Amino acid sequence: MRCFCFFAAGLISSSFMISAFAADTAAPAQVLSDEQSTQRYTPVPASDEGRKFDVMWEFDPYYSNVGVNIPLTNTPIPTIRSTDESVIYSDLIQGSLIPRYMVLEASIYPMPLLGSYLKADQPLAYKRGQFGNSSVNLIDSATAGFQEPWAVSALFGNIAKIVRPGEDRVGSNVGYTGYLISAGSKQIKDNVFIDDHWLEVEWKIKGKVNYPDEKLAWSFRVGGKFHDNTNIADEIYVNILRENLNVHFPFLSWISNSSLDMKLFFSETNAQLLRQQYIVGKKYPKVGWKYAPTLDIGVIWTSANEYSGVLRTTTLDTVTLVIRPSVDF
Fold first, then answer.
1. 268 and 236 Cβ atoms separated by less than 8 Å
2. Inter-residue contact 248 to 26 (CB < 8 Å)
3. Whole-prediction pTM
4. Enclosing domain of residue 149
């Protein structure tokens, strides 16, 4: 029953919030500049005439990465000139069955790494995160939801630059769609490293836009994750992530300047629900500020059947509170 309630609540909230988000519009302003963005986009000419590869990097407390876009054909990167999300998604998906680009990326997850370090090497500091006499540990709450400390990946698909009508500036406004293969050598369980060579295969549509007065990010994906550690269940999953920031929306508006991250994981062998994650966030931008405080809150429900053998430390399903304070520059 608890699984069903979480699942139903997630579907209802995701449908409502995505519909409301897609209707957001705003007039231009000059607040957040390219230099203040945490993501950078650097075109680098390649040796083949008519081709180029692009180096991109992003720094974030929860997900930092560096990648390179490598063209597989002589077709130039197309430009989508629209602020309509349905148009952007549709244009990205069109023709995605035949990859025209390869994107190689290496990523790390700083906060989950910090949580694992504190638990292993600074146990007293980790225990100080305990919230009173409850079972809630604030370090667990701040790092929950990430099951790997690092990864390498390759995406085969299409890329498009995204520009608002009437503007020529592209910057880091890029969308991707295609097939992603990722791999790593460690799993994180309760902020403890576990030896595990894993492979993840998925289809996704992902992107970010960063205008002076507005930011938008999205990631819609479906895939599977497979482990060589037999005590970790192989999974298939679906994930919906969308977040926006716009200085023109009311400061305390509960829908605008918000984010939604919903993930559902099922057993690859019997389709049993293994984990579900619902996280909503709020951003607090203000005209004149060069940053926006953010706060994400949610829950992660985990089945006891996600792990087996020596890794199965409980026979009960668990619920973890998620609290992620941050700053969006």
1. yes
2. yes
3. 0.80
4. 2-328
